[in-house]
Amino acid sequence: MSLDALKSALPDYAKDLKLNLGSVIGNSELPAQALWGTVLAVAIASRGRTVLRELEPEARAVLSPQAYTAAKAAAAVMAMNNVFYRTRHLLSDPEYGNLRAGLRMNVIGNPGVDKADFELWSFAVSAINGCGQCLDSHEQVLRKAGLSRETVQEAVKIASVVHAVAVTLDTEETLADR
Length: 178
Hints:
The protein has a single domain, classed as AhpD-like (Up-down Bundle). By secondary structure, it is mainly α. It is globular, with a radius of gyration of 16 Å. The chain has 9 helices and no strands. Helix 3 (32-46) runs antiparallel to helix 4 (49-62) and helix 3 packs parallel to helix 7 (115-129). The chain has helices spanning 2-9, 15-26, 32-46, 49-62, 65-90, 106-109, 115-129, 132-144, 149-176. 39% of the residues are buried.
């Protein structure tokens, strides 16, 4: 299906998503690895089978094997961290914040790719998963690494559009199955 096929699969009421999908991926100023790692990580995080199935081959073709694996690792570790840290933040008892997490997340320290790319992918996944604490943490690392606010926001735009496309296509598939 590819990017063009995903756009054509969107229903008429989602015309804005068609335009945005082409814009945030097709016209992105991010370097190829940062862009396609973000696309792959958020396609995984969106849980949209069609979106992942159609965007993964393009991501695999662009990314090195190490970057491909690191993008999947970012989605995996953030699926865990986002639930854990979001819950810790939402609990009214602040003492949970003083407890040791005890969760392995070694890949964050040694992702096998440029640290800023991995942080960008983790940040974008955290946007989908709604973890404010993780968003703040990754944004601070990205800004200290010299990324502009515009670059950081680019990852959020990609995450929001890919997620919206996944939700819309899954909705249409579910309604068609009735």
